[in-house]
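Data card: per-record layout.
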Amino acid sequence: MRPASPYGALLDDNPATHSTIEILGSTTHYWEFGPENAETVLVLVHGFRGDHHGLNAVSAHIRGIRIISPDLPGFGMSTPLSGHSHDIEGYALWLTSFVDALELKGTAVLLGHSFGSIVVSAAISRGLATPRLILVNPIAAPALSGPNALLSKITLSFYRLARALPHALGAPMLSNWLVVRVMSLAMVKTRESELRRWVHQQHHAHFSSYANRDTLLEGFEASIGSDVSMFADMITVPTLLIGARNDPISPVPAQERLATIIPQATLHIFDDVGHLIHYERPREAAELIVSFLDAGTVAEPTP
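The structure for this 303-residue chain is written out next.
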């Protein structure tokens, strides 16, 4: 039996509407929470191999803000880009076009989690205007150097092998239950058994919802070939960094350095959590977001 979402009641009380829009050849699916006429609008960008579900727990806690949460092209329900690679340049262009198509350019606040932190930072460096920026578990340093370099290279080789093999062999490798579970075990830090079971279930349900092997490999190469620090000096708006002390992907020293090179950055470090703030500590993240934006409220906890 699937574990119930610990945030299900909050989501039921704050239901989302589902829409689609054509952006750069991608039928982009997105979900909206909160009042359509809210003064503050927040556009979310999820991490690699995830989809909009990953940030739902954060959205569930926020009231009074219009939240727009798309699936990145090639992931979740959104189809791949057409005529553009699924690299940082392609995703940054897609995000700029998406925000522009919704007539929110210059007014929507951007929030990126993990790989999404690179996408939104790259888009800003290329001219996407936003009044404020929020990065959750930001990728603060290059993946191909530092403590995770060997693991990143091994994973890249695995993805390349899975793409090179015939479909009948390669495709099952990428969505293999054990592969997903090992990743999930490496990321989850909570000791609450029910929450751990739910996080694992979320990864098994959504971690393999990608369009094809080519899109997946392009996205992974983008995720390890760039990081937020590459665009930091171009980010001049007030920026909230929400990091974690036990993040296996972004060590604390890299997060602290990032806070010094983004001119108007404020860094908050959560203890006893890793790269899954959005799953394990969504209420505390929502509180920081609401305070930073000086808008909206955080929903009262459900019984």
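Known properties of this structure: DSSP finds twelve helices and ten strands in the chain. The radius of gyration is 18 Å.

See the next section for split statistics.
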